[in-house]
Structures are given as C-alpha cells and as structure tokens.
C-alpha cells in the first residue's frame, strides 16, 4: 500500500489521471510547525504559467469559512444582543411574495457565532435562495436579517452579522480590528479582506479549479468570491496563505493570552448545542450544500462523506465528541472553507493541522478522502515523530 505522501503525490501529479489540483498540508504544535509539505500546482489552466508553478505555504488562497474562526475570536471581545429579526415562513401562492413575521426572541451574539439563529446561506437553502432572488439580494453576504423557518442549528450568515456588529461597536472595519487584535500580534502579514489593496498578496494567488460531473478537474470559470469586496465579511471574506493560518492555529494551542484570555479561549471550545441543535447539525452536515448537490457539476462531488460520529458546535467550530476513528481526541475543534480547506485543533494531543486547497465545488469527495488519509497519517506516525499516536 502506498504511503500517504506517495498517494497525495500521485493524486496531484500532472497527466490524464490527475485527481487533485494540489494541496498544502501543515501540522503544528504549540511551539510551531512540525510538518509542512505542498503538492501540485497553482493552476489547472495549461495556458497559464501558474500551471507549472508549485503550491507553497505562502500561496494566497481564498480561505472562505476558515474566516469564521478569526471572527469568533474577534467577537469574544464584545457581547451585545440584537433585536427585531424577521422569520421567513413561506411565500404567497399567487404572487410569490415572501411571507415574513417578526421574531419574538432576541438574537444574541452567541447564537450568531454558533449558527443557532436560523440565518442561513442563500446558496445552500432553497427557501432563502428563493427569497434572495425575489429581493434581488446576492446569496453571499446577505445583509438583511431574515430567518428561515427552522430552529436549533442552521449554517449561515451569523458570523457575517457578528462582523458587522464588531464594526458598529468599535467604529472600525472588521479588517482593522483583526489587524490590531489578531494579524499584527501573530505576524500574519499575508492576510486581508481587501485583496485589491494588496498587490503583494494578489501576486501569489493560486487559481481556482473545478471538478466536473465526470470527475475530471480543470480551471474553474469562476473564483466564486469577488476580488473587490464591499464589506469585510466575517463569515468568509478573508484571503490568506497556509503559513499565516498555521500561526493562528499555533496561537490557539499555545493559549498564552495573545489572542484571548485563557479563560475566554475555553469558551471558544465549549459545546453550545441542545439535543435538538445536535440533530440539526448532523442533518445539515449530512445534507451538504443543497444547491451544489443539485447542480450538474456538484451532484456526485458533494455527496459528503459525513461519518457517523458524535459532534456538537461551539463558538469556534464543530466539536468532536465520540467515535472519531483516525485518532482525533474528543473535544477537538474543526471546520473548513468552501474551496475544500479543512482544519483541526486537537488540544488534548497538542496538535493542529490544516489541509488547504482551491477546488470547487465544496464537499469534494476525493478532497475529503485525501484529508482523512492525511489525518490518519498524522496520528499513526506515518509522517514522522509529530507526537500524537492513535489510541
């Protein structure tokens, strides 16, 4: 059987059998990076010079929902409540006009951070997609507070609204607030919301790739997220590089007060969901992104390999609870980003790891399998003496 590195090298090698455009893989402990290797190239476009340029830890990527971890950390500095959201309960039969009613309960910051508001993404919930089309609202970065009619846990724009809240409370842009409280202290010098203002970061950017319905990969016709963002979107608007994101994971493991007080960092990892919320989380995770699943390009790729593990959700991300077979310990926190980026912080073992790529659509089965093999290799010593061993 191939080693993990032989497997990933073959999967990213140029040629007709190529399975992945590339990935940057990093493992850290609290003292720094203990493993870092890159595979594949910066582009699948044969006409581009980037097609022969290797990915590196300094390659710029749209990290999408990996942004959420930084917004959660930034949000823990302030804890207000919001009022007067509206709930989308249906549509009029004749006109198709949305039917909205006022919510009875307050919308709290913790609800925003843990996706317990019903504020979904338009691109992943058919009801919200229909509402956004009616109201002429882009499905990324929706600004009007409208709930879909469900409770407990609904993945969506809560962190974007939390970012707006930070801006209003501090009278600073979210990027400026993160620069002051996260990026500058950690020397994350290649991280920004405002890509158009950073030619040095643009110059190192990888192209976006896409897997077609037949399983082949090639250049993506879209980058999915705009280069010229109007707002600093706390749910998914950051451009960064794997080396910078590793600095964030290292600091979380170190928990020395640079990002947050140690006691506040505990809140980042504390499970928040009720049993109903856990059921909704599992349902959402298993369903994947509905719009992409129903599209021709995404019908097969987004049939997610969601394991039957026990999980919860905290301010910072998904919390592993029982049954994670590769070696990840209970209480580990994880999440990812739309172009098939995935990260894990395992405090009990003392490691964090990051799989970074730029491949559409999200939930790609081959990318997920590569990540799982990466995780298994970490915990079983295949990548060298990184500290952890599977139990």
UniProtKB/TrEMBL annotation:
<protein>
    <submittedName>
        <fullName>D-aminoacylase</fullName>
    </submittedName>
</protein>
<feature type="domain" description="Beta-lactamase-related">
    <location>
        <begin position="13"/>
        <end position="372"/>
    </location>
</feature>
<comment type="similarity">
    <text>Belongs to the class-A beta-lactamase family.</text>
</comment>
<keyword id="KW-0378">Hydrolase</keyword>
<dbReference type="InterPro" id="IPR001466">
    <property type="entry name" value="Beta-lactam-related"/>
</dbReference>
<dbReference type="GO" id="GO:0016787">
    <property type="term" value="F:hydrolase activity"/>
</dbReference>
<dbReference type="Pfam" id="PF00144">
    <property type="entry name" value="Beta-lactamase"/>
</dbReference>
<dbReference type="InterPro" id="IPR050789">
    <property type="entry name" value="Diverse_Enzym_Activities"/>
</dbReference>
<dbReference type="InterPro" id="IPR012338">
    <property type="entry name" value="Beta-lactam/transpept-like"/>
</dbReference>
